[in-house]
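dumping this here before i forget
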Amino acid sequence: GALHAFGKGDGPVRKGTGFSDMVRDIVREKKGDPEFAAQIILLPSEQTLAQIIGKDVDVDSIHRAREMLRASIAADAKDALLECYHRMEVNAPYSPDAQQAGRRALRNACLGYLAAAPGGDGVALADEQFRRADNMTDKIAALTVLSHIDCREREEALMAFHDQWKSDHLVMDKWFTIQALSTLPDTLAEVKRLTGHAAFTMKVPNKVRALIGSFANANQLRFHEAKGAGYRFVADKVLELDRLNPQVAARMLGAFKNWRQMEPKRRKLMQAELKRIAGADGLSRDVFEIASKTLA
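structure:
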């Protein structure tokens, strides 16, 4: 309901503070379970909201409404979020136990909100956390927050992370994914550029899933770019992949399965790409079957 308060961004914003008040109360609670608090204060993802809406989905409106709500909560509850962020800092040596994990989860949820608040405080906090973190959870949380903000700190953090972990394949998968999920406008261009990176290859399914799969399945805003460039890119990659690994190509085609739920323009663009794939020469049975079923 809170998202409806913002409509489609046409008229003046009707600002409800009910959710902000709840967030403030939860993060101020000293006796509660931090893990539970972290789950409660997070907004549903853009994908979840699209599924709830279910038809004529307009990804731009969903993104805009959710971001406005996030910024409003961050501004209203900023002091409480900042206090909780500092209070949840873990000063003991890293341990994967539930207590530390809960504190980190709540601290990083607060960081996400603080980065959405007006002013650059959140960016400075994320940058400091990234540089000081002695564990992967906090480092990746900070890098993820920075990945959505067009700033020098983002560029520097991505480069530093790359330089530190470039020889570790599993960690590099996370580096690819973080960039594929960025909501920044040039994300598709970045993903295309990263397909040429030395650590990326279409021959390794985990690399494909980390970069192209994450973009197609989990970056709702940029995959569904209004002119269809995201659809075209992923469809091209499905066809390229079909010659290397039909099973992985067929799974990637799943990104198109909800085409009927989109608003008419995007629906038409997605359908066109599905038809292009289904009609391609020398297609594997796996991909042909999924494409045909999705169109049927």
